[in-house]
Amino acid sequence: MAAAPAAAGSGAGRGRRAAATVAAWGGWGGRPRPGNILLQLRQGQLTGRGLARAVQFTETFLTERDKQSKWSGIPQLLLKLYATSHLHSDFVECQNILKEISPLLSMEAMAFVTEERKLTQETTYPNTYIFDLFGGVDLLVEILMRPTISIRGQKLKISDEMSKDCLSILYNTCVCTEGVTKRLAEKNDFVIFLFTLMTSKKTFLQTATLIEDILGVKKEMIRLDEVPNLSSLVSNFDQQQLANFCRILAVTISEMDTGNDDKHTLLAKNAQQKKSLSLGPSAAEINQAALLSIPGFVERLCKLATRKVSESTGTASFLQELEEWYTWLDNALVLDALMRVANEESEHNQGASEENSPPHSSTRTQLPQSMKIMHEIMYKLEVLYVLCVLLMGRQRNQVHRMIAEFKLIPGLNNLFDKLIWRKHSASALVLHGHNQNCDCSPDITLKIQFLRLLQSFSDHHENKYLLLNNQELNELSAISLKANIPEVEAVLNTDRSLVCDGKRGLLTRLLQVMKKEPAESSFRFWQARAVESFLRGTTSYADQMFLLKRGLLEHILYCIVDSECKSRDVLQSYFDLLGELMKFNVDAFKRFNKYINTDAKFQVFLKQINSSLVDSNMLVRCVTLSLDRFENQVDMKVAEVLSECRLLAYISQVPTQMSFLFRLINIIHVQTLTQENVSCLNTSLVILMLARRKERLPLYLRLLQRMEHSKKYPGFLLNNFHNLLRFWQQHYLHKDKDSTCLENSSCISFSYWKETVSILLNPDRQSPSALVSYIEEPYMDIDRDFTEE
């Protein structure tokens, strides 16, 4: 019927194809019905057959049709663009046509982004839609990629200005027209080619933003090792470009997200891991390795993350960047907000500025401090995210070593008060459609990203002591000396030239703001997680006392008991932190009893624990382990705590332990196990391991059986527990699983964990410690293949 989509070629060739198309219309009895044209174009675009481009029509036909449909002359302009963009063109006329097309799309895209889009009766179809429908997007891709074509051994060239116009038009079309970004994402050679356009400063911002949008919808992650001369490209970026490039890296080094990681079932994650092992490293892991192989890459990121506002790019270059962003919609709203802040401050300081400024200065070049700060915040957000992802990757130890060497932590410590945790101004920047307290505001996002970085940096790593200053490290040594215990080896091995300077280290600063945080603050969760990560690993009495002396336990108890905290996430983070702070520490239990000094307070505390064991089970585990250790110690101080502490007395009762055990097993199932709730399974195992040590395991199993019968559901709990333990073996005995976390959190050897699970799963019904001995035959259901459910 209609001619196939035209490839870029000579003008004469296009004319013949257009004539053939018109002839085809004649075969249908004249020109097509107006209502069918757009439908035919869309169909051709989807199928690759029939009508798909403006070149398949005559200019006369398009002009006549435009009078009725008000297409703003876009199809005719595209027809001219085809004719002037052939391989032997000098592209001068081509660029002029692009200049005509660009404003027709940019205003529409601006209105679209700012949610002020109004479809008038005169404009039935948006300009961007018409531009795409008549083949504009595909034509611009061809024009941009002309430099990849050689004629007689010479590469074709197009100007930076023309590339910039093409990129702007493509981006505006992506913003307004559904499906365009996905179609571009499918052109892998084009996506890779776009990276080469970032070598020019003139096209960098436009290219980076288009790449970011494309990668955001691309089904398969791009591999950075396929980008030509990646190392040279990145090494030649200035600091401003590198910070913006981190926006792209955020997409390329993070594993493809299919939901909240904590909510993924472990069954699904294990299956994915098995599949990944057979496929080799993921694209994200390959990309991380590619970046880490670039000389000086991490060092430059650390410098960006820690530079002060006064060290950032000068006013002139910043204004130039803002000017470029003004027509580039991704940051248009941010720019508007920045300019509003600038105007407010300019008006406020107008008198002083006029008296003290040089004769030729103007408010345009007198950049307000708040504008500089927000500029730096936007950069640091992306940089900290990239560093955080690298810290959690396969090369974690390499990244840790570099981050320490390049003094990221002391640098962030110096920025803490003036930038990271600065006080909000009355005109603090907020993004369009959000408010100052929204988690999306740059100020708040920077704080959360900073806390996530601290959490990743401290978690199970010796470098966590870099969060302290020299005086605070000496304090840790003094605590160990006073308690007559060996000093922590990691403290002794800490390079004092890399720690924080100033009066307070980063951890102490964090504690100070944590205690001042309002009850409803969204930061509480992240602050607690960051501090808890400092305590994770092998329990350190000195670390605990360092935090106890700064009032952390009292602050946590205030939040749990007195502030009536309702957020489950915050409560979980505070319970986890409290458990790590109190584990095996007699002084902590004394402080707890001093604060929770009435039955009323204790009942409120128990109510919070019992309201959600998924949130509080780590505290239950730590208290249970501490009780077991204290009961085996001969010490007056310990004996005093055992006799006075309400919490220890409560946990020591067998009915209490059985209540916890029953509920911990009952709230989880193999099919619903996640990284978040698997701790319930391990806490139930801790209770049974301690019972086994005391030769009381059969008693506990018998009591569970009785509790089942009392609920009128014989077998339902023990069958479930049997399945959970079978899964536990598959999950934790896999060769890639790290068992040290279980050992460190419990001070019970992993071999004892394995032995206990094996004893419980013993198929011999005569064994008094086997689960099957307590499940009656009619209710037995232990051989279910849970992996297929």
TrEMBL record:
<dbReference type="GO" id="GO:0006511">
    <property type="term" value="P:ubiquitin-dependent protein catabolic process"/>
</dbReference>
<dbReference type="InterPro" id="IPR016024">
    <property type="entry name" value="ARM-type_fold"/>
</dbReference>
<feature type="region of interest" description="Disordered">
    <location>
        <begin position="345"/>
        <end position="366"/>
    </location>
</feature>
<feature type="compositionally biased region" description="Polar residues">
    <location>
        <begin position="349"/>
        <end position="366"/>
    </location>
</feature>
<keyword id="KW-0675">Receptor</keyword>
<dbReference type="GO" id="GO:0019902">
    <property type="term" value="F:phosphatase binding"/>
</dbReference>
<dbReference type="GO" id="GO:0031464">
    <property type="term" value="C:Cul4A-RING E3 ubiquitin ligase complex"/>
</dbReference>
<dbReference type="Pfam" id="PF12463">
    <property type="entry name" value="DUF3689"/>
</dbReference>
<protein>
    <submittedName>
        <fullName>Short transient receptor potential channel 4-associated protein isoform X2</fullName>
    </submittedName>
</protein>
<dbReference type="InterPro" id="IPR022162">
    <property type="entry name" value="TRPC4AP"/>
</dbReference>
